[in-house]
Structures are given as C-alpha cells and as structure tokens.
Amino acid sequence: MKAIDIIRDEHRALAAVLRAMEFTVAGVRAGRFAPDFRLFAMLVDYIVRVPEESHHPKEDEVLFPLVRAACPEVEPILDELEAQHQAGEAHIQELGMALIHWQAVGDPGFARFAAVVGRYLSFEWAHIELEESRLLPLLEARLAPAARAAVDAAFAANADPWRGRDGEFDALFSAIVAATPAPMGLGGPAGRG
Ligand SMILES: [Fe+2]
User: Fold this and answer.
1) How far is the CA of 15 from the centre of ligand 1 (A)?
2) H or E stretch including 11?
3) Of these four, 2, 105, 146, 155, which has the most CB atoms within 10 Å of its CB?
4) Confidence of residue 168 (pLDDT cuts 50, 70, 90)
5) Cα 11 to averaged position of ligand 1 atoms, centre (Å)
6) CATH topology for 2-179?
7) Above 90 in pLDDT, residue 89?
8) 37 close to 105: Cβ distance less than 8 angstroms
9) What is the pLDDT of residue 102?
10) CA–CA dist 161, 155 (Å, integer)
11) In this protein, which residues make up the domain named Hemerythrin-like (predicted)?
12) How far apart are CA 50 and CA 155, in angstroms?
C-alpha cells in the first residue's frame, strides 16, 4: 500500500533527524563538540515544521478520516494519535523557547534545552512507535481493497508535500546531515560542518 510506504519513509527521515538531535546534544553534554547553534536551529526547524506542516496534516486530514470510515476498530488508536498530535504543539513551542534561552544566556541555558529535548524525544519515539507497531500493521491486515485504493489515491492527489515548497525540506535535511558531526553526520568534529 503506497500510502503506508510513504508514512514509513517519512518516519524514517524524521527518526534520522531525531537521532541527530540526540547525538549532538549528547556530544555537547560530554564536551565533545562546541555548540553549533545553526545546526541546533536547523534541527529544531525540521522537527517543528516537517511534522506540523506536512506529515501530521497528511495523517489527520487524509489518512485518519478515510481509515476511520473504513475500519472502525482502529478508532481508539486514532483518537490517541490525534491527541498526541495536539499535545505535540506544546512540546514544540517549549523546544524553540529553550533553544532561544540557551543562545541568550550561554552555557547555563544548556541544561534546560537538554532536558526539553529529552522529554520531546521520549514523547516522539512513543508516538512513532504507536503508529508503526499498532496502526500500520492493523491497516495492512484489515483495510479492504477499495479502502486501500481510496487512501492511495488521496495520497497521490496530495502531490508530495513532504518535500515542502521547492524541495525545501529535502534541502534542510541535507544541510543537517552536512552539519551534524561525524560519525552520525558529515560535519567536522567541532560540529561546525
Ligand atoms: Fe506519523
């Protein structure tokens, strides 16, 4: 089912960025890298904008309503996922504010940023896990061929918003890979690409 492949691909790209965030915060905490605020700004920008502007709308507005109608047994999972999408907004605001605070005050602001990142990562990993381990297998097993075709057609009609306008999300992803310190990314050991 093409729509499910697209959702899984999007999760993989987001997971790579979440791991880059985890790795870079751990490196700063351990004193292995100097803080690269441009990299942290790109990580936060990706984590905030790609799910909010592309991935969640595709799920909330296209996938979930079609699936709700076609496969009522997934309703409790969809309710939980939609509640998580709502709750994610507060996490995301906190993430942006904690980064600004760290940049404003310097080293004393790092602990707060690292704590917010830790909470956000636990929340987002659990969210992706719920979709991957409970929702998607159920859809693969239970959706009737007509419903699968309807979801795939809706995704195809939705073009490819994942890439953003003019491929901007792809470009942001590549810039993150280039700036993230090796061995996770291609950047230099100081984390300044
Ligand atoms: Fe998702």
Assistant:
1) 11
2) helix 2-29
3) 155
4) confident
5) 6
6) Four Helix Bundle (Hemerythrin (Met), subunit A) (1.20.120)
7) no
8) no
9) 98
10) 10
11) 3-139
12) 17
